[in-house]
Write a structure and sequence with these properties.
mainly beta, three-stranded antiparallel sheet, 9 strands
Length: 100
């Protein structure tokens, strides 16, 4: 169901909400108003029609992602997570996000 989940000592599961909690770009995201382009509403979620991933937009989108309403959308091999402190090993900072 989920495209990518990051597990570390500080993030035990993937959480998808509009609050600035541990969020990772995924093919299914919590619905916040209209779904991003290329996604369809499925109850309280938005599901990708094309394998693309989305994450809640917090200001500017991270490198490699494009703004679509309240979301940032990236290709299916894209990775982004909301930054909480410093970025984990193997990722780098891109605004309010960590990317690979």
């Amino acid at each position: 169901m989920f495209k990518t989940c990051l597990v570390s000592l500080t993030i035990a599961a993937c959480v998808f909400s509009t609050a600035a909690t541990a969020q990772t770009a995924a093919t299914v995201v919590a619905k916040n108003g209209s779904c991003p382009k290329g996604f369809s509403a499925k109850g309280s979620s938005c599901a990708s029609n094309s394998g693309k991933v989305a994450i809640a937009r917090l200001g500017s989108c991270p490198k490699g992602f494009k703004s679509s309403g309240k979301y940032c959308v990236g290709d299916n091999d894209s990775f982004a997570m909301v930054k909480s402190g410093s970025c984990p090993s193997g990722t780098k900072s891109s605004g309010k996000y960590c990317i690979k």
